[in-house]
Amino acid sequence: MTTTPHREFRDQSSRILERVKNGETISVTENGEVMATPLPPSRTPFEQLLRSGRILPATPYKLDFRALSRITIHETTTHLLADCHGEE
User: Which of 4, 17, 51, 53 has the fewest CB atoms within 10 Å of its CB?
Assistant: First the structure.
Protein backbone atom coordinates (compact mmCIF):
# COMPACT_ATOMS: atom_id res chain seq x y z
CA MET A 1 0.00 0.00 0.00
CA THR A 2 1.23 3.46 -0.93
CA THR A 3 0.77 6.55 1.23
CA THR A 4 0.58 10.15 0.12
CA PRO A 5 0.47 13.34 2.23
CA HIS A 6 -2.79 15.28 2.29
CA ARG A 7 -1.24 18.27 0.52
CA GLU A 8 0.04 16.10 -2.34
CA PHE A 9 -3.38 14.45 -2.60
CA ARG A 10 -5.01 17.88 -2.82
CA ASP A 11 -2.55 19.15 -5.43
CA GLN A 12 -2.51 15.99 -7.58
CA SER A 13 -5.91 14.47 -6.87
CA SER A 14 -6.73 13.67 -10.51
CA ARG A 15 -3.54 11.67 -10.99
CA ILE A 16 -3.85 9.89 -7.63
CA LEU A 17 -7.54 9.06 -8.13
CA GLU A 18 -6.72 7.61 -11.55
CA ARG A 19 -4.22 5.28 -9.84
CA VAL A 20 -6.92 4.28 -7.33
CA LYS A 21 -9.34 3.65 -10.19
CA ASN A 22 -6.76 1.30 -11.74
CA GLY A 23 -6.65 -0.79 -8.57
CA GLU A 24 -3.83 0.73 -6.53
CA THR A 25 -4.44 1.20 -2.81
CA ILE A 26 -3.29 4.63 -1.65
CA SER A 27 -3.79 6.02 1.84
CA VAL A 28 -3.88 9.76 2.45
CA THR A 29 -1.91 10.87 5.52
CA GLU A 30 -1.79 14.00 7.63
CA ASN A 31 1.16 14.43 9.97
CA GLY A 32 2.07 10.80 9.30
CA GLU A 33 -1.34 9.44 10.38
CA VAL A 34 -3.60 7.72 7.84
CA MET A 35 -6.73 9.83 7.42
CA ALA A 36 -8.42 8.19 4.40
CA THR A 37 -8.07 5.41 1.88
CA PRO A 38 -10.05 6.18 -1.30
CA LEU A 39 -11.63 3.15 -2.97
CA PRO A 40 -13.22 2.75 -6.38
CA PRO A 41 -17.03 2.69 -5.97
CA SER A 42 -17.40 -0.56 -7.92
CA ARG A 43 -15.37 -2.55 -5.38
CA THR A 44 -17.50 -4.85 -3.21
CA PRO A 45 -16.93 -5.07 0.57
CA PHE A 46 -15.44 -8.54 -0.01
CA GLU A 47 -12.97 -7.15 -2.56
CA GLN A 48 -12.06 -4.35 -0.16
CA LEU A 49 -11.28 -6.82 2.63
CA LEU A 50 -9.35 -9.05 0.24
CA ARG A 51 -7.22 -6.18 -1.11
CA SER A 52 -6.52 -4.83 2.37
CA GLY A 53 -5.24 -8.23 3.49
CA ARG A 54 -7.81 -8.55 6.28
CA ILE A 55 -9.09 -11.79 4.71
CA LEU A 56 -7.46 -14.42 2.52
CA PRO A 57 -8.94 -16.06 -0.56
CA ALA A 58 -10.16 -19.62 -0.25
CA THR A 59 -7.64 -22.28 -1.16
CA PRO A 60 -8.47 -25.00 -3.66
CA TYR A 61 -8.11 -27.62 -0.91
CA LYS A 62 -10.47 -30.55 -1.38
CA LEU A 63 -11.45 -32.78 1.50
CA ASP A 64 -12.22 -36.41 0.80
CA PHE A 65 -15.11 -37.06 3.18
CA ARG A 66 -14.81 -40.79 2.52
CA ALA A 67 -11.51 -40.73 4.43
CA LEU A 68 -13.21 -39.55 7.63
CA SER A 69 -14.06 -42.23 10.16
CA ARG A 70 -17.74 -42.67 10.91
CA ILE A 71 -19.14 -42.34 14.40
CA THR A 72 -22.36 -43.57 15.92
CA ILE A 73 -24.52 -41.29 18.05
CA HIS A 74 -27.54 -42.21 20.12
CA GLU A 75 -29.22 -38.80 20.12
CA THR A 76 -31.46 -37.14 17.57
CA THR A 77 -30.28 -34.27 15.42
CA THR A 78 -32.89 -32.06 17.09
CA HIS A 79 -31.40 -32.85 20.49
CA LEU A 80 -27.84 -32.13 19.27
CA LEU A 81 -28.85 -28.81 17.74
CA ALA A 82 -30.75 -27.79 20.87
CA ASP A 83 -27.64 -28.61 22.91
CA CYS A 84 -25.50 -26.44 20.60
CA HIS A 85 -27.92 -23.54 21.06
CA GLY A 86 -27.97 -24.01 24.84
CA GLU A 87 -31.66 -24.81 24.88
CA GLU A 88 -31.48 -27.78 27.22
Answer: 53
Nearest Cα to 16, choosing from 33, 35, 44, 37? 37
> Where does residue 75 fall: left (phi above 0), alpha (psi -120 to 50 degrees), or beta otherwise?
beta
Number of H helices, E strands in the chain: 4, 3
CB 20 within 8 A of CB 38: yes
| pLDDT given for residue 10 in this prediction | 94
This prediction's pTM: 0.48
Between vectors from CA 52 to CA 6 and to CA 10, what angle results, nearest 5°? 15
Q: What is the DSSP letter of 57?
A: P
Give the three-class secondary structure for 23: coil
Query: C-alpha distances in angstroms, 45 versus 39, 48, 52, 83?
Result: 10, 5, 11, 34
